[in-house]
Amino acid sequence: MKLSVFYDHITEACTQRKLPVQEVLKQVRDAGITGIEINLSQLLDKKEEILENFRDADLCISSIYEFYDWGNQGDLSHGRKQVETAYEVGAGKILVVPGFVSAKEAAQFRRKNHSYKELAACMAQNEKIRKMEKNLSELVFYSMELAEDEKAVAVTLEDFDGKLAPYATANGLLYFMEHVPDLKYTVDTGNFAFSDEDAWEGYEQLKSYVVHAHCKDRGEEKKLRYWNCRVNRGLATVPVGSGYMPVARIVEDLLDRGYDGYFAIEHFGAKDQLSCIRESAKYLKNEIKWK
């Protein structure tokens, strides 16, 4: 099993523990983690220094992610840079957060979300969605052009935990998968709870598109602050394996299906990132039953 972790967690751990990044990276590697998930802008800001630190710690970049506003601004130059950088550093995946819609549009999509057919018809008429589709399609094509004889860097979306994200629900994600040829899915085991959807059901609906995985758990909260509570029992930040999300079930199913990619540990906002990273890595390596 190949594990990765978000670079943001490493930098947070440096601040929390007052440790140099090299020491935290060493401890991350000692925990059995070999990959890093990193934001494109963060990487480009200090690329040579960051890459040198990764090489010294025997770590690679597993995926590069970035946020865009393609619903309003269609410039694809930074997206192309994301693909080019992935090829340069040997990352096989990129995660794109293509933009958001207005609160009014998001509410309209939520009202239609009970039916994929109705939601798809509604999304197809939305100008921002069409712009996102166009840029995603062009980015996927650009990645394939650059690939030549090697395996193309996969362009992916995730089930993003945001009210204004039109890909926060399983049906919303499915729309993009079906309308952007060769677009792939980074499954996040904890994010469907944000939209009050069952994580296993969402995964089942989309698993044929999965090429990457974020392992995120959620802790229960006594007072929920969200608009629905059918499935959502809280969104508290907890180490992987200590919450109520079906992380093990999804991971085991992926492995049974022949998935050989990275499982990225994710827990933004943890009060002690280094302890959470160790605990999450231990759970994924020792508690998951896989063949």
UniProtKB/TrEMBL annotation:
UniProt GO molecular function? isomerase activity
The identity of this protein, by name, is: Sugar phosphate isomerase/epimerase
Q: Which Gene3D superfamilies match?
A: Divalent-metal-dependent TIM barrel enzymes
Which UniProt keywords are present, listed alphabetically? Isomerase
Q: Any transmembrane segments, and where?
A: none
Q: Which residues form the Xylose isomerase-like TIM barrel domain?
A: 26-286
Task: Extract the InterPro entries matched here.
Answer: IolE/XylAMocC-like, Xyl_isomerase-like_sf, Xyl_isomerase-like_TIM-brl
Q: Which organism is it from?
A: Roseburia yibonii
What the entry lists under Pfam families is as follows:
AP_endonuc_2
